[in-house]
Write a structure and sequence with these properties.
Helices cover 35% and strands 18% of the residues. By secondary structure, it is of the alpha/beta class. The chain has a single domain, classed as 3-Layer(aba) Sandwich (Rossmann fold), CATH 3.40.50.1820. Strands 1-2-4-3-5-6-9-10 form an eight-stranded mixed β-sheet, with helices on both faces. Helix 9 links the parallel strand 9 and strand 10. It is globular and about 50 Å long. InterPro entries: AB_hydrolase_fold (IPR029058), Hydrolase_4 (IPR022742), MAG_DAG_Lipase (IPR051044). It comes from Pseudohalioglobus sediminis. One of its GO terms (molecular function) is hydrolase activity. This is Alpha/beta hydrolase. Keywords: Hydrolase.
């Protein structure tokens, strides 16, 4: 139970404060950090001003289609690469402090953003009409953030990997190296999930979300349950978008890559046996590193598990 993030009282960053922050966010080009944004950074442990005093921080909105996406960037002098982080479903940038720290500690500029319907970005909570909107979000943020002219690597978790797979389908692949953590193709129990969707979507628009034990980090699990940016329903529209994407997805060589896949064998969120094979088919020569004791939330696994796979990422990204 070793985490950078102690359990905090839920009232420190309230839904009301977050609503006010969303309304006050500047454009990314302006990037002014007001009092509420500073509170957000402190609450989610994204304030790296003491750990990396030379890092230049900017946060603000970048447009992508009908969405306004909250993007955050840290630039280091003498950086050796840019590292783009793409979070998973129900996640947001505030939960990825460990991966931001990973990138900065490896002398990378770091860029992260909230996907549509997540975190501080606009959109109906955890809803997407088309997975192509996720791909557009990734590419629009990468373009709008004006990163330095350096090799760009990408590190994604779960649904973030699906967004990148969709980028590859569109032959939009500006990445030197890519690491996929617990990639999503099919969720676990997909046949049952799809049957439930077909049965229920005409009668309700969402079902209750269950907070799974998807990490060995107990502090993280407790924090997520109290996180004011968490949505507590599963919108059936998202399941429908996933089904349409899977129906269109040709599990064959996408002509880009390869990627480094890191996968926990205790992952009960995605159908990882199928998904790993699909990744190897779509990104030939992909390497897979299995973690016997890891769950799905690899970005927020225990320190011991993260220390087991960080060297794999180091070797792939920087050697």
């Amino acid at each position: 139970m070793d985490s950078r993030r102690p359990v905090k009282p839920a009232g420190i960053m309230t839904p009301n404060k977050l609503h006010k922050l969303r309304s006050a966010l500047p454009s990314f080009a302006e990037g002014a950090a007001g009092a509420l944004l500073r509170q957000y950074l402190a609450f989610y442990q994204l304030d790296f001003s003491k750990t990396y005093p030379l890092a230049d921080y900017r946060g603000g909105l970048i447009p992508s289609g009908r969405y306004q996406l909250m993007a955050q960037r840290w630039l280091l002098p003498d950086a050796r690469a840019n590292l783009l982080l793409v979070h998973g479903y129900f996640d947001h940038a505030g939960l990825y402090d460990k991966l931001v720290d990973y990138g900065l500690s490896r002398q990378c500029n770091v860029l992260i953003f909230d996907l549509p319907g997540h975190g501080l970005s606009s959109g109906d909570p955890c809803v997407i009409e088309d997975f192509a909107d996720y791909a557009a979000a990734v590419l629009d943020v990468l373009s709008g953030a004006e990163m330095p002219d350096l090799p760009t690597h990408v590190l994604a978790q779960s649904t973030g990997c699906a967004a990148l797979t969709e980028c590859a389908r569109q032959q939009q692949w500006p990445y030197e190296r890519a690491v996929f953590l617990a990639p999503l193709v099919r969720p676990a129990g997909w046949l049952g999930v799809r049957a439930g969707y077909l049965l229920l979507h005409r009668f309700t628009d969402s079902v209750a979300r269950k907070f799974n034990r998807n990490s060995a980090d107990e502090d993280f699990l407790e924090f997520v349950r109290r996180d004011p940016l968490q949505f507590r329903r599963v919108p059936l529209a998202w399941i429908g978008a996933l089904q349409r994407w899977l129906d269109e997805l040709d599990v064959d060589d996408l002509g880009v890559g390869p990627v480094q896949v890191i996968q926990g064998r205790r992952d009960g969120t995605v159908d990882w046996r199928y998904n790993v094979g699909a990744m190897q088919a779509m990104f030939p020569e992909t390497s897979v590193h299995y973690l016997p004791d890891a769950g799905h939330q690899l970005a927020n696994e225990s320190r011991a598990i993260r220390e087991a796979y960080y060297p794999v990422m180091d070797q792939y990204l920087f050697n």
